[in-house]
Amino acid sequence: MASTTTRQIFSGLSRNTFLLAFASLFADISTEMLYPILPVFLTQSLHATGSIVGLVEGFAQAAQNVVQGFSGALSDKLQKRKPIALLGYFMAAIGKPLMGVATVWPAVFGARSLDRLGSGIRSAPRDALIASSVDDKNRGRAFGLEGIGDNAGAFLGPILAAILLYSLHVDMRTIFYVALIPGLLAFFMVLLVTERPAAVAAKSKIDASIWQFPKRYWTYLLVTALFNLGNSSNSFLILRTQDFGVSLETTILIYAGFNLIAALISYPAGALSDRLGRKNILLASFIIFGVAYLGFALATGILMIAGLFVFYGLYEGVFRSVGKAFASDFVPEHLRAGGIGWFSTTVGLLQLIASLVAGLLWDKVAHAAVFYYGFGSAVLGSLALFLLVPAQIRAAKRAE
Asked: 3-state DSSP: the chain helix, strand, coil percent, rounded to 5?
């Protein structure tokens, strides 16, 4: 009975979707081992300021997302997803130990940028592989499964870091070296993926395919931009936790719990979006984000912070799976990598602005101001999504 239920839950998914979910699992273990300790490493070991943390994380996140548009367009032009994804996974893996050898923050800036560039290069081709590995009616599930892998890795990575730091008493810098191992495992998962040729050959040039996207897609990008204008790096959530005197060990565990919630909600959210429409589920995630950020601004103690991280995890899991699936709905298959890539580029550019603004607010105004600013952008984005974006469509079925 249990096996039958499991088959029903994961029906419509393919071998590729599971391999790519495992790739995301290992890649995020590698990344998230470092994420909660990186702002502490910068501020305490390398004596960087909050503005520097915003610059490093904002630029790295922007680099990751901006390059997705170009790697997606290149993938569409060549109609080759797997080789580009493999290059990205390898670059991201080798960026981790380079951060560990840094003695000044600019060196961390360079290594972190290499890591995130690799992540950006791989993401759009990988997402196009996911979208093409299932039929339209199961696309939300496919992205939800990848979201499980991604967020489960984001849960396990901090736990592993905490074990290494506090049970095995490993030096903080050594964590950056150990992170290379799951990064390479992710690379090998993608090696096992079988790429299916696209049904339609792309006729557009690498720098021109963007103009072939429909008007509704551009409206969706505008809404995404408005929302992410205040969606700064999660490093500020970690620094906010440190405001209340929470130990690094407890901070890591709270952050791991946040990612566990994101992992648990990701697949159900994707499946619900297949049934109820992407717009409704995505709007719920925008509202959750706004409430969470308002809570971080008003927080008075560690228990409230821990609860807010759990709540924020709901947003993270929903937005990752449903946001990309919705973007893919608006574009035909042969332009899908570019469509998802430019969506992520929009997210990255605006998150860079948000992180730079957040760094200035953190240093010059007040720590809570970062989160009031994010709350305002969430309200603006929610209204724009509700008023401007149509219900779910199936662009892949639309005639060219």
From this structure: 80, 0, 20
